[in-house]
Amino acid sequence: MDVKIWTLDTMKLAYVEHVGPYQEVEVAWMKLASWAGEHGLFTERTKSFGIYYDDPMKTPAENLRSEACITIDKEVPTVGDVKIKEVKSGRYAVTAHLGPYDKLTESWTELAKWLQESNEECAGGPGFEQYLNDPHATAPEHLVTLLLLPIK
């Protein structure tokens, strides 16, 4: 596994929370995309992230917490389920997952093994996934997702 250490800059995110199976987070994405489209927030600089707070091996599926997020660079009014937050800069172990989303767990498991064998230590925050292409316009085998694990 090829892992790089990156320092991410502080990011301002618009997000919609989701509680339930991670495979059902699409509902949150639809709400966020609809709102973002209405406010003209999708640009070439917009980044899409999923933030995952719970380990699906330890937490019942109905209690899994996640957020569908996009970066924003201007002030916008929020409505309904859309919220705004800032994620502070920090160090992350980063690796790329190539292929369908239903295989992401395998890449997260490999990244966890890498962490155990490295000299790095988990910072204790949630893991992020950065989606580099549109799953509605990209074949599953061509999807590219960055896995970002916060480290000290």
Automatic annotation (TrEMBL):
Q: Could you tell me which Gene3D superfamilies the record lists for this protein?
A: Regulatory factor, effector binding domain (3.20.80.10)
Every AraC effector-binding domain range: 1-152
From the UniProt record, list the coiled-coil ranges.
Answer: none
Q: InterPro entries of this UniProt entry?
A: AraC_E-bd, GyrI-like, Reg_factor_effector_dom_sf, SmbC-like
Pfam family membership, one: GyrI-like
The name under which this protein is listed is: AraC family transcriptional regulator
